[in-house]
Specification:
The protein has helices at residues 11-21, 29-41, 92-106, 121-130, and strands at residues 2-5, 45-51, 57-68, 73-83, 111-114. The protein is an alpha+beta fold and 143 residues long. It starts with a strand and ends in a 13-residue tail after the last helix. Residues 1-143 form the N-acetyltransferase domain.
Length: 143
């Protein structure tokens, strides 16, 4: 397995992952592309893929590094961790998180944090098995 840092040439593949995960949402191709471009241009953001040795895409990881008083230092927020449904249980999610964990340690991050939708029970089991602990409720206020 290998990691591929996202580029603009990967946008169609990334877009297909976004649509796979959040099926309750509809995505405008061009508006989402603008966000994708901003993520790629932001030095504190990351977006990368897991590929097999033949170059096939099996997962995506996106997030950002930020300073927080809660952790008194740098924290890594995992905004998206998506694997192909047919590839779940094959180690791609773990591979992506392992890579991110190492990169976050290099940036002296104190923690990896993420949130996951309430219906995603299977994902919750994966995160807990990986070592994440439930530590808060997530809230949103749509503007």
């Amino acid at each position: 397995m290998q990691i591929k840092t996202a580029t603009m040439e990967d946008y169609d593949i990334a877009f297909s992952y976004f649509e796979k995960l959040w099926t309750f949402n509809t995505y405008d191709y061009e508006e989402t592309k603008k966000v994708y471009e901003k993520v790629l241009a932001d030095a504190n953001s990351f977006l990368f893929f897991a590929l097999d040795d033949a170059g096939n895409y099996h997962g995506l990881c996106h997030g950002s590094y930020f300073e927080t008083f809660w952790m008194t230092g740098c924290t890594c927020y995992v905004a998206s961790l998506i694997t192909n449904k047919e590839d779940r249980g094959k180690g791609y999610g773990t591979f992506l998180l392992d890579y991110l964990k190492e990169k976050s340690k290099e940036k002296d991050c104190k923690a990896l944090i993420l949130d996951s939708g309430l219906p995603r029970v299977e994902a919750h089991g994966f995160y807990e098995h990986y070592g994440f602990a439930k530590n808060c409720y997530g809230f949103q206020l749509v503007l």
